[in-house]
Structure formats: structure tokens, C-alpha cells
Amino acid sequence: MFAVFNKLGWFFKHYWKRYLIAIIALNVASAIGLIPPKLVGYTIDQIQFGTLTSAILTSLILGYLVLIVVHYCISFFWDYTLFGGAAILERWMRSRLMSHFLKMTPTFFGKHRTGDLMARSTNDLKAISQTAGFGVLTLVDSSIFMFMIIAMMGFTISWELTIVSLIPLPIMAVVMNKYGAAIHARFTDAQEAFGEMNNEVLESIRGVRVLRAFVQERQDAKRFKVMTNDVYEKNIEVAKIDALFEPTMKILVGISYTIGIGYGAFLVFQNTMTLGDLVTFNVYLGMLIWPMFAVGELINVMQRGNASLDRVNQTLAYQADVQDKSNPTNLEEVGSIIFNEVSFSYPGTENDQLKGMTLHVNKGDTIGVVGKTGAGKTTLFKLLLRQYPGIKGEITISGVPLEDIALKQIRSWVGYVPQDQMMFSKTIRENIQFGKEDATDTEIYRVMELAHFLNDIKQLPDGLDTQVGESGITLSGGQKQRVALARAFIKDPEILILDDSLSAVDGKTEAKIIEHLREERKDKTTFIAAHRLSAVTHADHIIVLEDGKIAEQGTHEQLMQLDGWYRKQYQDQQLEKGEVESF
């Protein structure tokens, strides 16, 4: 049960002073709370024997008031210190998780669904936080505070009565242990079901327009209902065990009360103890209810926390497929980029997506990458970004193998505009500044001109301060592409990769963007993948990929001299363009 505390040992060691002070303050407050029952018993005895005076009564009342104030102040202090530590743990764990996510490669996100990762970052972290706060409280109260009460009952009243009244405790220990094992298993299942439901909700929200277009709202609602019912049923299974804790504790406490009052009354009649002692004993027995409940709550919280911590630690233990070497090479500038007999297959697949690719790219070259869908264009760029391990052959930059260069340095050189543009739920200004945090409005307007977005920004209600909505839902596909282009342009990267990022704009807009690119990128390397061949005709070198291999390569003019795929595709596209224009 206490395994979760061992797993969190690194945190408690770091904040041991905070927790030590909180536990000491908690115990001091508990000790002060044990004094009032003795005052009550003493007062009753004074009344019974007729020795209570106004001076004694005044002293008792004043003493009681002082104890209330002191107890309140110390209780506030330990509560703030203890639960503040729990909030620190939650913040720390959330930061570790986020940092871990940012280091992960696509392989990790292929194995872990977004909804489940969100569940681990929210519900599971909350359960772990509960362990470091409420869990420590119940541990102290179910052990030290309980022993303090038992000691007061035994040493100051009657050990005989105390031992007899606590007969139900061993029974409670056995029952609570069984409840704890059931809670751990059922809570783990419930959290996994919650993660699956989270993922379903995310996919439905992201794909709401597709759902509506295909009139799948009712079917999606049915699927969600099934998942919701599954989460409900599994949480009900957890609740069933939860519901057993309180009645079980009440029965055991009731038995203790019955024994305490019955046998205590017998001892009073035998003149073994006074009536005031019996009243004090029963007050202590009443105070013992919370520590007994705390035992059940401790087991509950520990098992939930342990299950959640296992899930979070499982995520944190996942090692990134691509990591820096211990002493990476530091390059001053980006020179030539060479692919030497590069082959690659995605993890879990048998066939190579790239096969024996050899390509020499000089600094400042513009490289066109074309081919049929699935030919390997995007894969080529992913390897250049070092997103996957297991590359056969060698990729070098300025003669240095790619794996010898730090990931941070590689990605600082690259401006990448993928096929699916990611817009953050912020303003257009903030989306563009993602490429350069301190970019001024003057710089932003300049790159918007390069991306041919100036006319669009004038038509938007708040200009640069227009909110783009969730994933840029308020922008058209072409507008999102051009904002993404502006975001890459403002970075002014050494290597610019445009992965079919002009597909949603018309031919005239594409021509103007390409013209701007040629002017701005004269001394820097650019890769352009496109299905519309007009986007690469200006390139210094064009490669045609087919089934992961370079089938044709050369300049536009050279490729047009060949009777290959490039020439036929270009002629077909020009014919279509001509037909459209004549129409």
C-alpha cells in the first residue's frame, strides 16, 4: 500500500523540511485537541463532588478559548504547508510530463493516443497530488494521532477499558486491505476508459465538419454513448468499493462505542473510574472515529495514487527514439547537405519507404521534390529533421553526420511548413510570432507580403489581432497555409522546407509566393515538395520520387527533355490550366 510513497521518495527528499514542519505542526495541533476533553471531564467531576468555584470555572473557560485560538492558528499553518506541497508536486509532475512530450518523436505519439495522454496529465496528476496532500494527512492521523488518543485513553483513564474498546481494530485492518486491492485494480481500469473517451471527444471535435458533411452525427453520438457508459460502469465499480468504506467503519466504530459505554458504565458502578473519566473516555472514543476513517481513506487514496503514478511513470519512462550524443558536434553554419545511399522504413513496417537515395544539395540551392502520392516526399523531410531512428546510409550537413549534430541545433536551422498546418488558438500575430518571438509588426507585415496575405489581413475584422479559433477554424485552407508560410519566413531559416504547402492556393497566388521566395532565398537552402509542378520549375535541381527511389532528376529543362513521368505530368497540368483559362 505504501509503495506510492517510495515511488515519490525523490519529491519528499527534496521537500523534506516542508513536510517535516507540516507534520510537526499537525501533531502539535492534534495534541492541543486532546486537552479540551480532559477539561470537560475535570469540570464534570468538580460538579459531581460540589467543588466547582467561579474562579475555577472562569479559568477553565479562558483556557478553553486560548486553546481554540492556538489550535486554529496552528491548523491553518499545517494545512497551508502540507497542501501547498501537494500543489508543488502536481505542478512539478505536469512540467515533467510536458517537457517529456516535447522531446518525444512521432513513434511515441503513434503508440499513445492524445486523449489518454490528456487523462494522465489531468486526472492522474490530481490523484498523485491527493497522495502528497490528503494521503500524508490520513497517514499521520491514522497512525500518530490515533496512538496519541489511545495513549490518553490508556494512561489517563483506563488501559483495561481502552483495550476492550479497541477489539474491532484488527478486523478493520483486514477488511481495509481487501478493499484497497480492489480499489487499485478498478481505478486503473476506470482511468484507462476515461483516456479512451477523452480521445474520442477530441477526434469528434476536430472532425466535426467531416461528421456533418457525411451526416454521421447520430452514429458518432451512439459511439460516444457506448464509451460514456463504459466509463460510467467502471467508475460505478470503483464507487461500489468506495461506498463500502464508510458503513464498514461505522459498524466497527459503533461496536467500539457499545463496548466503551457498556463496560465503562460497569467500571463507574464499581468505583474504578469517575463519571468525568467516562465522559472524557467517550469523547476520546468519538475523536477516534476520524483516525479510524482515516485508515480507510488512506488505503483509498494510496491505491488511487499508486495506480495513477504507475500510469504517469510508464509515460515518463518511455525513452525517445532519437537522442543527442553525449558530445554533439557544434556547426557554425549550414553548408552542403548530402544524402548518401539513404534507406529507411518506419518502425513496425517491413518495406523501405526510401531506397538507396543519393542526393547532393549545395548551400543556397532550391530543391524541388515531386512524385506520386506516397512516393516518399514527406519521409525525406522527416529524416532531415531527425524525427526517426534506424536510417541506413548517411545524411551529412557540412560533412558532419546528422546524428552527430544536436537536435536543437538542427531544428533551429529549419523552417518547416508541413502538409497539415497547425494553427494555435491565438491571434494571427501570435501565430506568426511563433517563428520569432520578438518580431515587430513591421516584420510581420513584410513576411505576410511574401506569403501574399496582406489583402486577406485587411478583410479580417481585427487585423493581426483576429482570433483564428480552434486549429484555425475561422480561416480557409489557403489562408492557413499562408499564415504558416509567414510563420516560417519570419524565422528566416537556413533551411526552408515547404511540404506541399501551396496546394490550397490558386495558381496566381502560388506564382507570386514563388517569385518572392526566389528573391528572398538566394543564399539559403530551400526544399519544395509539390504536386503542382509549376511550384518547382524555378528550382536549381528537381528530383522525381517513385516508390522511394529517385526515378528522374535534373533541372526543369533537363527533365522536359526526357520522356518520363515529370514531362507527362507537367504537360497534363498545363493542358488542364489552358482548358480552364479558355473556358
Structure in words:
- The strands form two sheets. The chain has a six-stranded mixed beta sheet with strand order 6-7-8-3-9-10, sandwiched between helices. Strands 2-1-4-5 form a four-stranded antiparallel beta sheet, with helices on one face.
- It is elongated.
- Residues 579-583 have low confidence and may be disordered.
- It has helices spanning 3-7, 9-14, 16-33, 35-49, 54-103, 106-111, 114-121, 123-156, 159-165, 168-206, 208-213, 217-269, 275-287, 289-316, 377-384, 407-413, 428-433, 441-450, 454-459, 477-489, 507-520, 556-561, 565-582, and strands at residues 337-344, 354-361, 366-371, 392-397, 400-401, 414-417, 495-499, 525-529, 541-546, 549-554.
- It has two domains: 8-316, ABC transporter transmembrane region fold, CATH 1.20.1560.10; 337-582, P-loop containing nucleotide triphosphate hydrolases (Rossmann fold, 3-Layer(aba) Sandwich), CATH 3.40.50.300.
- It is built from 23 helices and ten strands.
- Helix 4 (35-49) runs antiparallel to helix 13 (275-287), helix 8 packs antiparallel against helix 14 and helix 10 runs antiparallel to helix 12 (217-269).
- It is an alpha/beta fold and 583 residues long.
- A hairpin with a 2-residue loop joins strand 4 (392-397) and strand 5.
